[in-house]
Sequence to fold (246 residues):
Amino acid sequence: VYQGDFGLDMKLGYGEFSWPTGELYHGQFYRDHRHGLGTYQWPDGSSFTGMFYLSYREGYGTMYLKTRLFQGLYKADQRFGPGVETYPDGRQDVGLWVREHLIKLCMEVPRSFSIHNYPEYSGFLTHSPARLGLSDEEKVDWDQPEGQDLFFYDYKRFLLNDDLTLPPEMHIYSTDNSHLPMTCSFRKELDAQIFLNDIPPFAEDEEPWFIKNETPLMVKIQKQTYKYRFTVTLTSSTFCWTAGPT
Fold:
């Protein structure tokens, strides 16, 4: 059952959606998807309050479980980035998370080793740090000029023209974006809903930022953290996430 705002014959705006299983969501919708701020509740009493992107948990939020409380960054419905997990006895695990795994502590361990103890790796301390921009993922890198690339018209031109990627008015037939290609224009449209009142994270003239850890997984985490650096999600009466530059 859905009760709320409609637009373009779809759920669009604020509303509440309930399932026969007892699950309930109330919050923002965009083109039939949970998109924006909202709260999702399960029959067992657990709930998530925070940011959603195309019906997935994405961005900062709070996950209330029976025996634990997690506050942190999500990507594609999974923990992915900085977060704090709190246990009933008051203990906390603080650091960087990937799914259910804590992969990096946000603290220095006494008597831990340092790269300064190994002169053979001194080169890593003197080379210029890499620079990275969020727009790097949006660019299409052509290996060859159009006239020399035999596969250009068969494959790559569909990445350049949104009108060739999906048929017109595709939302009338399906809004299942899990199995549909994501066009650049639709991605910008979705981001505009999320970052409506914040500084746009994909400004074309945006300066790349320095990254300290160039491990592929850590680069992805830093990108996700940087993307949501200006979002503020109210998750309880006493707690809010503010992601600033790191």
Summary: Helices lie at 123-126, 152-160, 162-165, 184-194, 216-227. DSSP finds five helices and 14 strands in the chain. Residues 85 and 171 are 39 Å apart (CA to CA). Residues 233-246 have pLDDT under 50 and may be disordered.
